[in-house]
């Protein structure tokens, strides 16, 4: 395939000079690396050794590094100037017109540098990931496509993921597709990487086990989810140290592989490795580390509930209820007189007890619709109700008789508003509307809760509130 | 000083600036007619000698109390004692050092992570250190400043701290990042901004790259202080951008995380979380820091002022219910000191270490009067009468000299009594593992409720059930505690002072040891009384019938002796931990600060409740208002009360007619509508200003009700 593309690109650039080439394909299919390697091969490292008449130079501009459209243009000019050995002053490059002028000047100078030049000099300009460019001017792509019409000797190569039809607004641009790797290709590429750590028994064994191991990983995990080469390699290298742990311990030997596989079968059943973790479990993993990370993650969610002070927890619960309950059911859940009805499990009764036709209007469960906006006042009202329902933390019970906060101490207190402000700056509550519109604590400002059901349920348990009792439907 | 600045900043304003109309008086002096008007702002007058000379010292003086009867001198004593106790930041310094120490581990961890980041994770991912700080955002600032100082000395390379408030978009963040990084060694930033004679864009990381290569920096640390505060998109773009530069600039990221790493990861899309890799560092939790500050400042044997249980439990409760913060705890402590010495006329007596005994000789009559009003004085008189010491009680009440003598002895003995309490506290804390923590134990001990507390009962019960080995380890722990004291509480060992107790315990310990030794020899273990008393239930199967029979276990001689020893130990404990309630001691008001009333108002203001209360019942604030006669009330209050009765959408016309009815009392005529209308406008403007109403979008002539009372 590499050869195929090689010929293709070679043909496109050299044989019949082509102005635009589009390389497209999914992520991690080798578009950038192949074009880089190929162009590096085609363009000689230094000019003196090149015997052929035609010289090819290339410049690669990576769009992820360019913060704005102008940045891209400036960078292009700088790169090209660097490539062609431009000595003079480079003007500013604020828009596409200036880019054309600057490039034209440079290339003109470059091609006429040698007297015996036959016009074989070409420049390949590679825009990597140009479809993801930030703040790109709308005319960027069509203008770049017409670059070749104005400046001779230039070939622009676009590397994109999935081009829209006719996205260059220019007919007849050759497209080269990079298909996703098939299974044998993936395994072949993977087998080329050297795993660390190596097996003690030697290089050959390592290679053998690695290739069989990677097949097993592909079949069990990557086949269904992470099929591109990068994440496949990541999963393999993450599992490898744990997989060969029995060999390093000396409890198992590399041959027969099947016994090794059986001993490690839990590794292939757990799909937690597919989620890229941002915490490393240092490069000395043990067989238990998988379980440890699970325990850790559990401890982390518990940590949040343990860290938040009492009032903030209740506020978060109130915010969740305000987000997920429709306002009209508040009377059912939170009226003083409605305690008995609430115990009958939710306000669903109020809806479903009526004619069944009523519910036809809204069949989607409230939970699935995501959190709705609410005003601060509503959350506060629910908070005060929950506060009476919540149990006093066990640790405090001894002090309750003298130090207990009374209800009237909390109403309208500055601490309460501080807790709301803190929650919203922790992004556990999200303020809606423009960031600076109105005061954050204004009664009419609208919020939405940003924590999920799991967190809320454990929060509720920690303060002795069963959140299900208050949730409609 | 800030007051002065505030006053000065208005000096440039003319009083007629905001008057709608005024009489023009032409300037008669013609010599400098076209003089330029003075600038409005920035009219700082650096020196105002009049204010500064007499302002400062007078501000800091304590006022004479007891209705002005207290002499200036004793007020000065109080002030001096306060300054000695709070020690011009002596305590504050201690607390700062505790804070610094607490972050020390974190700093070391972060620093070692940054140093090792290159070697360990040499792949294309960004090394990132997640510092979990806990939900107290206020502490992040201090921590990150410390981190930056530490890293600057430890590593070779720039350290940049980014905050969410600093920048709203990617360009601004990059600008700040580049500027801060390059400014840290600013020799030639102009040169850096240019490459091959080209001026680079201000957000081009090329600048940073050339800086890094020019200085040979090993790492560029980018610390994102409040990662929650950043918009997710922004954070993702930044991460991806920095990652694409990883091959040229050695970035290391630090994230301050207030919630949890898991939540943070859930916020990031896969593309970003794939490019991060790193370690988590936990910061010591605020609660444990507070515990340490508490030991140092409140439970220390050197603390001058004791905080009473009610006050301490209120402070701790507040920490628990609301945001826990060391800074606010320290502020509360300082406030306790300040208010005690400022408001308590007898407070200067508490400091026995200095010359307060001299003070006793110079007590004024009003001081004696005040002492006789104290509850603790009354209690001591009642005690005397109960033991039929009528004369003694009478003398206390009538003779100032005898009272002074009593005060002297009492103050002498109080230090010893407090020391007893603290020692008991320390023994209990170090000898038991399942008991309540330091602060809770302090509360029970200083509440005088130790002997009746569940904890102490449980301790004694468990003593009865202990095996000899456990008992020995317990007594050993107690002896060690007595011998070594507690450095955190400034408590030296007191082996000499408690000879008797120590010897008794030692005796029991050796006896138990010999008992166990002989028991081991014989091969018969010594059982504790618990297992002895429980009757054994014996089942025997005879001819397919089950027979149940109770069996009383027999007690061996050694076990009997062991039980006797345990009983002796129980007695010892009961005796040793029988402590006086500090709140019952005579003159405890002098050195025990237990009043919670000022704190509630100072630290937990309730602005909203106050405004609502004032508006709904103004008669409690203003004189000359009859609650039943609404027209006498201020217009805003009238409107607010009507507002409370209204539904969530208020028709303004209805509100106005109702208002007019109330104000004019029904007999309103066309002519005098103007006055009430003006009042109405003013009231509505006030309500609007307070954020209670706003224009409704649903109906043009309606107002939307925004706030409800009592929330």
TrEMBL record, chain A:
<dbReference type="InterPro" id="IPR041664">
    <property type="entry name" value="AAA_16"/>
</dbReference>
<dbReference type="InterPro" id="IPR027417">
    <property type="entry name" value="P-loop_NTPase"/>
</dbReference>
<keyword id="KW-0547">Nucleotide-binding</keyword>
<dbReference type="GO" id="GO:0006270">
    <property type="term" value="P:DNA replication initiation"/>
</dbReference>
<dbReference type="Pfam" id="PF21639">
    <property type="entry name" value="ORC5_lid"/>
</dbReference>
<feature type="domain" description="ORC5 lid">
    <location>
        <begin position="210"/>
        <end position="269"/>
    </location>
</feature>
<dbReference type="GO" id="GO:0005664">
    <property type="term" value="C:nuclear origin of replication recognition complex"/>
</dbReference>
<feature type="domain" description="Origin recognition complex subunit 5 C-terminal">
    <location>
        <begin position="308"/>
        <end position="471"/>
    </location>
</feature>
<dbReference type="InterPro" id="IPR048866">
    <property type="entry name" value="ORC5_lid"/>
</dbReference>
<dbReference type="Pfam" id="PF14630">
    <property type="entry name" value="ORC5_C"/>
</dbReference>
<comment type="similarity">
    <text>Belongs to the ORC5 family.</text>
</comment>
<protein>
    <recommendedName>
        <fullName>Orc1-like AAA ATPase domain-containing protein</fullName>
    </recommendedName>
</protein>
<dbReference type="Pfam" id="PF13191">
    <property type="entry name" value="AAA_16"/>
</dbReference>
<keyword id="KW-0235">DNA replication</keyword>
<dbReference type="GO" id="GO:0003688">
    <property type="term" value="F:DNA replication origin binding"/>
</dbReference>
<feature type="domain" description="Orc1-like AAA ATPase">
    <location>
        <begin position="16"/>
        <end position="157"/>
    </location>
</feature>
<keyword id="KW-0067">ATP-binding</keyword>
<keyword id="KW-0539">Nucleus</keyword>
<dbReference type="InterPro" id="IPR020796">
    <property type="entry name" value="ORC5"/>
</dbReference>
<dbReference type="InterPro" id="IPR047088">
    <property type="entry name" value="ORC5_C"/>
</dbReference>
Automatic annotation (TrEMBL), chain B:
<keyword id="KW-0235">DNA replication</keyword>
<dbReference type="GO" id="GO:0003688">
    <property type="term" value="F:DNA replication origin binding"/>
</dbReference>
<feature type="domain" description="Origin recognition complex subunit 3 insertion">
    <location>
        <begin position="366"/>
        <end position="590"/>
    </location>
</feature>
<dbReference type="InterPro" id="IPR045667">
    <property type="entry name" value="ORC3_N"/>
</dbReference>
<keyword id="KW-0238">DNA-binding</keyword>
<dbReference type="GO" id="GO:0006270">
    <property type="term" value="P:DNA replication initiation"/>
</dbReference>
<feature type="domain" description="Origin recognition complex subunit 3 winged helix C-terminal">
    <location>
        <begin position="608"/>
        <end position="708"/>
    </location>
</feature>
<dbReference type="Pfam" id="PF19675">
    <property type="entry name" value="ORC3_ins"/>
</dbReference>
<dbReference type="GO" id="GO:0031261">
    <property type="term" value="C:DNA replication preinitiation complex"/>
</dbReference>
<comment type="subunit">
    <text>Component of ORC, a complex composed of at least 6 subunits: ORC1, ORC2, ORC3, ORC4, ORC5 and ORC6. ORC is regulated in a cell-cycle dependent manner. It is sequentially assembled at the exit from anaphase of mitosis and disassembled as cells enter S phase.</text>
</comment>
<dbReference type="GO" id="GO:0005656">
    <property type="term" value="C:nuclear pre-replicative complex"/>
</dbReference>
<feature type="domain" description="Origin recognition complex subunit 3 N-terminal">
    <location>
        <begin position="59"/>
        <end position="349"/>
    </location>
</feature>
<feature type="region of interest" description="Disordered">
    <location>
        <begin position="1"/>
        <end position="57"/>
    </location>
</feature>
<dbReference type="InterPro" id="IPR020795">
    <property type="entry name" value="ORC3"/>
</dbReference>
<dbReference type="Pfam" id="PF18137">
    <property type="entry name" value="WHD_ORC"/>
</dbReference>
<protein>
    <recommendedName>
        <fullName>Origin recognition complex subunit 3</fullName>
    </recommendedName>
</protein>
<keyword id="KW-0597">Phosphoprotein</keyword>
<comment type="function">
    <text>Component of the origin recognition complex (ORC) that binds origins of replication. DNA-binding is ATP-dependent. The specific DNA sequences that define origins of replication have not been identified yet. ORC is required to assemble the pre-replication complex necessary to initiate DNA replication. Binds histone H3 and H4 trimethylation marks H3K9me3, H3K27me3 and H4K20me3.</text>
</comment>
<dbReference type="InterPro" id="IPR040855">
    <property type="entry name" value="ORC_WH_C"/>
</dbReference>
<dbReference type="Pfam" id="PF07034">
    <property type="entry name" value="ORC3_N"/>
</dbReference>
<keyword id="KW-0539">Nucleus</keyword>
<dbReference type="GO" id="GO:0005664">
    <property type="term" value="C:nuclear origin of replication recognition complex"/>
</dbReference>
